[in-house]
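Backbone shape codes
____________________
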Amino acid sequence: MATTPRRRIAPTSAEVAERAGVSRTTVSFVLNDVRSMNISEATRLKVLDAARELGYEPHAGARSLAGGITGTVAVLIPRSDHLHVDAFLPRLLSAVNDRCHVYGYKVLLEAADDLGKAPGAFMNLARGKRVDGLVIANMRAAERPFVEMLHADGFPVAVPGNGVDAFHTRSGGSDDIVQARLVTQHLLALGHERIAHVAFAAPEFEVVVLRRAGYEQALTGAGIEPDPALVAYADISAHSGYVAVRAMLERRASFTALFAGNDTIAFGAIRALHEAGLRVPHDVAVVGYDDIPLAPFAVPALTTMLTDPIARGHEAVDMLHGQMTGVPYRRQTKPYPTRLVVRESCGAAAAAARAAMAPAAAPVPRSRKSAPSPTALARSKTAVEHPAAPRRRSVATKA
């Protein structure tokens, strides 16, 4: 006679307490991360080990009552459809989700446009005590006052991105202005003066404004007046980048290089240039931003600024957890690297090949007394990063 398998009974907090050799109250304090009770680290580890061995998970309702918390972190994105077309955001969200699980937090994904069109609609999430902390991805400038208000009220909030702001709510690292300036300087060093910029979204987003600022700083520093006609705003997707560049070409904007606000926009831009009969990088050099996994597989392989959404997502949650537990976050690793990944689309490799094929200059006789020092020799091997290139003539569309 077949027997019905008995359903496994979930372990209880009493069993955790017995295995750890502590009281149920101590188990409750440890598992709900109540730090004010001054429980020793050794005891905390014993309780956590016992709970893990037994597979014990505290009931969400009981956890909320015990600690006055929900155990939930909300992640706010601008629009849900961004997940359909963006390559950076899903990786950031994956990292946030993974790190939240390390700390035992559940994740609630919300889109700002679903909560309400008015800036700061997310305030209801916090003030309604539906969540314990908030991660805001790709913050709009109009949302900053509300973020500062939440922080002033003591509500945990973190903004993954570059640089640390005055409220220490932004995850640290490299600077969008610096990185955008380096991208533009790279193109200037290759001989380009007419450099277009297609932002990945509208200027309502803080990071869009910062990257344009870096682009314009590089031009101004080279003695070139930024031309507003060479700036366009896309809308996250590759198609929007394609449309933005087509519009530039149709109004006969003249440029020999293009700095795309992210790699997805760069893909759309390359398609628009190809349809216009313009070759990348021979007629127009293209540089993207983010170094997404598809970047090296583009044709030509995409030169792009490296970012690290995984590290940024992890650090945002680490910072948020510090605010939620009252333990200040301390960066354990070096700031994110600022590195331009040079591939084919910018034309640097071709320029280097041309420079290598140029006739070598005749050696200049040198007396023994004028021999270079070891320091000078070392400097000569490392100082030149970009091959010398003539200034490029602007290209609009081909007939």
